[in-house]
Amino acid sequence: MTSVRVWGPGVGAVAVLVATGAWARWSSDTDPRLWSQVRPAIEARLVEQSRGAGYGESEPGLRARWFCRAEAVDLDERDGLVRAGVTTLCLEYGVRAGHLVECGGAELPQVLRLRREGDGDYVVVSQEAPPDGAGNAKWLTAHFGPITPVGLDTGVSSTPLESAARSHFGLPANSPVSEC
Fold it and tell me: Which of 35, 63, 108, 111 is the least buried, fewest Cβ under 10 Å from its Cβ?
């Protein structure tokens, strides 16, 4: 089973959209050098797209900010373009009474295409995510290959995002995270 999860105030505890089957097929030959070059562009794009979409941003006192992480499922470079099949996790964090609060987030698979610019940096030139509902399983199969027994349920770890948020807000490394 594959799930696309979205959560936060107004969404309910956790809304889960479920597709039949599973899509993740981790490639053991993903080029770590290439991934380290394209990952910053992918994560910056995810953060930019998330801005303005969270509950925490509507509460100025929280000083909320989005933090996003992507993990490579597959990576291919051809004819000057990189195709990155990824799992993504974006979380919105803020601060209340000196404590880190998580205000919302989303986790889903995506396919991005990137091009190297003249300065050597990569830029995202296209981005696709699965549709909700009946077309979800078909999209996943078309973009990630035949359905496999390995699922997305392992997801992307929130630990690096929590650490980055604590650092951004100047909080101790062991400060707890609570809900918004």
Answer: 63
